[in-house]
Amino acid sequence: SCAMLRATVKLCCGIAHDHLRRLPGLKITAVVAIQKDVRGLVVRGSRHLHSKIPHYIQRLMGKETAACLEPAGDVSPSQFSSMDLFYITQGETALQRALSILQQHTSWQAETMLDAVAAVSSAALPGLGKVFRAEAVLAVPVARLHQELFEGIEQMPQWNPTLSQVKVLQRIGTDTLVTHEVTAPSPGNLVGQRDFISVQHRGRRETAIYLVGTATHVEPLPLQEGCIRAESRLSCIVLQPLAGDPGRTRFTWLLSMDLKASAAGWIPASIINRVLPQSQADFIKHLCQHLSATACP
To answer: pLDDT tens across 52-80, in order?
Structure first.
């Protein structure tokens, strides 16, 4: 039934939480269940497809409905395993959550930044806590940024000194990646070195490209020595051509993270609220420097 399917979707999404994903067999059971339920609904006809089922999952099962956010590439249901569908569902759920945040009228409060390369603001949102929004206009087209931030994701440490490694663990179709990211050790770093296991997912709406990330779990992937495994609750970068000037891009980045406690103990919220927006500004600064250095003459 649709009610059972909705419950199963919630179960799949809930596995992103640390205490749930440690339960043996829960991930596989949930993914197999949603795969079976959605396919059953498709076989019985589109009138049984509930509006809450992500459009991307409907496409994977071979049933397209009303136009909404489209993945950037083609998908074929036969090429995906149950775990592939689990990762795709995580990415699509994060994308829909980001779209909801972007579309609602939220009171964003400006953050005081050391660097004026981007305007950063924040808001406390249910289920996520404090979310930071960075906005900038970059003097390159969307396609160039898309290449750097998604297709060339493993090369990020070459131009972003805050990262020591980005490795693609799995590619799922053309629009979903599972990645392992390790931050670089830095003298005076207030929170210490962290690593992240994330699903990276791409979508497109009209001329905009959406690049979302959220924490996931991969076994076996041991902790990095000297690192604390942190989690991205939600990251969404929106790349949109500037109106009247397609050679420039309006860059918007939503970010919410759980940096986890360090070996020394709990990290005060005041430090986290200073580190995260500054990390966004630093990322955009390094990106701009890289784009400028590699621009065509």
So the answer is: 445 555 555 444 333 356 555 555 556 78
Using alpha carbons, list the distances in angstroms from residue 25 to 8, 148, 198: 14, 37, 20
pLDDT in tens, 214-258: 999 887 787 778 889 999 999 999 999 999 999 999 999 999 999
Nearest to 231 by CA among 16, 83, 24, 85: 16
Tell me the residue ranges of DSSP E strands in 115-184. 119-125, 129-138, 163-172, 176-183
Residue 105 and residue 107: Cα distance in Å, rounded?
A: 7
pTM: 0.77
Q: How many whole angstroms separate alpha carbon 248 and alpha carbon 34?
A: 41
State both tokens at 182: 């390790």
Residue 266 carries which side chain, given as an amino acid letter? W
Name the token pair of 156: 């990020």
